[in-house]
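Title: Prediction job returns without error message
Component: structure pipeline
Severity: low
Priority: P3
Assignee: unassigned

Description:
Job completed but the reporter wants confirmation the result is attached to the right record. Sequence as submitted:
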Amino acid sequence: MVFNLYICYDSTTEMQDILKDMKNEYTEEKWEQGMYGGYSVKPDILVRTSNEVWLSNFLLYQSKDSMISYVANYWPDFSVWDFIKIMIEYQNFTGRS
């Protein structure tokens, strides 16, 4: 299991950096290589704390196939029980049809 924690991250800046480096030679492989996390950042679950119901420019491309879980607690109050609940939800998650 890999746990990634992003702080002060901005998808727009990441995408602009990728486009600058590609120089009209677009391929999906080059796009993913240019991402800050490379190929490894394809989250199965994206957790949004503070009960916010938008992604706020966060991992827009990477989370296209992710289960998104909205948690009412703010990040400092996020507990192991919140995590377990999300894992149970994920076990029952069927994905996109």
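Comment from assignee: result matches the submitted record. The chain has a mean pLDDT of 84.
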